[in-house]
cysteine-S-conjugate beta-lyase
Amino acid sequence: MNFDKQITRNLTGCDKWDGMQHIFGTTDALPMWVADMDFESPPSVIEAMQKRVEHGVFGYTMQTDEYKNSIVNWMKQRHGWEVEPEWLVFCPGVVPALSFAVQAFTHPGDKVVIQPPVYPPFHSVVKDHGRELVLNPLKFENGQYSMDLEALEHILDNQQIKMLILCSPHNPVGRVWTRGELEALVDLCARHDVLIVSDEIHADLVYDKSTHIPLANISDEAKNRSIICTSPSKTFNIAGLNTSNIIIPDPQIRKTFQKALQLYHVGSISAIGSTAAEAAYTDGGEWLDDVLAYLQQNIEYVIEYVEKHIPEIKVGNPEATYLLWMDFRCLGMTPAETADFLLTKAKLALNNGSAFGQGGAGFMRMNVACPKSTVVEAMKRLDNAMTAWRLEQKNV
């Protein structure tokens, strides 16, 4: 694959490019925000969809054994996890799955823990359903993030918590939780009878030095008190096909979750989405290896460039995802001022860290799943803006 290829996405209805005017009030900036890639999906996926389209009939679509087996085989080959086909529940997306889980396993007023800074919908799927959001912020020490397990234990000891929503790997900080961290988390939740809903949408986007461990594969205890939310959307750049695979080993938890889907008449699968996902899981492994190598180079370029030319800014080195969590607190600006500075002075459209909740103020999230030339241009723009900022500081 030629990941250097510049593909014009304007006028395709894509959020990232066509949504710039609506979201940022301008089209005069590089969109490096929402988490999808500017790369073509794997050839096998495109070919499978073309073949399906040529058939010409797109009626109601069942969940075939071939599709289920493609997921089972992928999980075994890529993550060493033996998944049974009956554990699979299909949903239009991971965020809808989180929403259904909150509705199915908690009641209005119940307490749900999340660990910010974290993907913004974690906040809304709890609050929008009238549940109480309990925050257990990540620890940030010496430039490294970790779960604050002591604080979590205190929360669980003193409050009636029904559910914890885990982000694994973590968006936006890029952590891949270790076996020890996950074992400790499961132990705490087991002692307090807390259900864990694990968003593992970035599980396949892990770099060489780290290994993603599916939460339910940690232990029998983890398997029996977890809902694992997976999807091919981030991995193979098919988010617009609205396909996710929710893996629920425990039969009673699975039955309760399925009832929530049935209540809202959700559960049918997209004809094109299932075709794309099956092809991706069956033949997309080599493409994924190639894209991970390319993403790693983009990440290294940004980190090295910033260290050399813009040392005031600190950039975390993610263990997973194609998202860089960048510390702009050196500017001494409010979150809104920081975002405006980057948009108007650097002409960069990034995600404002404050949207990720506590601990996000002063940070910005940059998506580097794009051609290297786009990343190079982004660094030039940022460098120029910061050079001007330094001059302004000297003249104050």
